[in-house]
């Protein structure tokens, strides 16, 4: 018979969509305004396989019909993830990272070069991508010192698993301000953010 | 109401029962649900939520599309343990109605239960809805007024 009769593996979304999305959004603002600070969230929705709770909660909060989303090979491999996002967020899934408003990266070792994402343009710098990446751990890796808006002096940031070109590419990204991508690192039920305004020194 | 159900529409059967479920009274759905054994244990994928949808019309079904107005709709999606997903879009604000309609939509996709439900719920309800519709049409038809324009004398002279 038709597609409609096949069993589906879509998981439930937020239990209380309005309030939970507002709470997660508040925490994201907190993380964005204090780059490198780790924020924890409570997730009531079930996360699809290979997506952390933090990433699923952010996806349910941020994505809607106006935000094209790109999935990396690890996440795109699972049809259930695209189904989950389409069902709960109604967001279009795009094939090219350049078209995406949000990019979900399931394995940070295979993170595409940052130039492959939308940087925005001078009239509309907000038309850039926000890249959410799954990290093995948010602390315990090589230390970089963050400076910039939201940081009084410097803040140490030591995520595990970033490719070794990342901080050089980040310097270029930061240099292109007000253009550039913003990054969110997720792991389990925690996440932290690195807006383009943050300078990082290894 | 015009329905464009062609024979080659693979979802025609489902469209039909979803439409019937959406129009069936809540009381009747509750009764049928209570009589189910075993009562299905469903997971709510998307909780019942109420919103507005824009209803579009087309004069005489062929003219330009126009927005007729917004209507209140409640929708809900559930999943049964076997994995079938049921959806419901119901006019009005009854969350329970949307949830029950979604549960029945999921159950009706299971060939083992479809026949029984079809007999207990869908067919009788469809009948009743059709009767109500005819009644309403008759009432409306009784108020029909014909207008005549009579030729006046001006042109005759």
Q: Which value, in Å, is the CA radius of gyration of chain A?
A: 17 Å
* Count of helix runs of chain A: 5
Distance between the termini of chain A: 58 Å
The total beta strand count of chain A reads 10
How are strands sequenced across the largest beta sheet of chain A? 1-9-8-5-4-2-3
Structural class of chain B: alpha+beta
Give the uncertain stretches of chain B in residue-range form: none
Would you tell me the structural class of the helices and strands of chain A?
alpha/beta
What oligomeric state best describes the polypeptide chains here? heterodimer
Outline of chain B: elongated
Low-confidence segments of chain A, given as residue ranges, are none
Average per-residue pLDDT of chain B, rounded, comes to 89
Order of helices and strands of chain B: HHEEEHH
C-alpha end-to-end distance of chain B:
49 Å
Structural description of this entry:
The complex is a heterodimer of chains A (about 200) and B (about 160). With about 200 residues, chain A is of the alpha/beta class. In chain A, about 25% of the residues lie in helices and about 20% in strands. Chain A has five helices and ten strands. Chain A has helices at about 15-35, 55-60, 75, 80-90, 165-175; strands at about 40, 70, 95, 100-105, 130-135, 145, 155, 180-185, 190-195, 200. In chain A, the strands form two sheets. Chain A has a seven-stranded mixed sheet. In chain A, strands 7-6-10 form a three-stranded antiparallel sheet. In chain A, helix 1 (about 15-35) crosses helix 2 (about 55-60). Chain B has about 160 residues and is α+β, with helices and mostly antiparallel strands. The mean pLDDT of chain B is about 90. A three-stranded antiparallel sheet of chain B has the order 1-2-3. In chain B, a hairpin with a 5-residue loop joins strand 2 and strand 3.
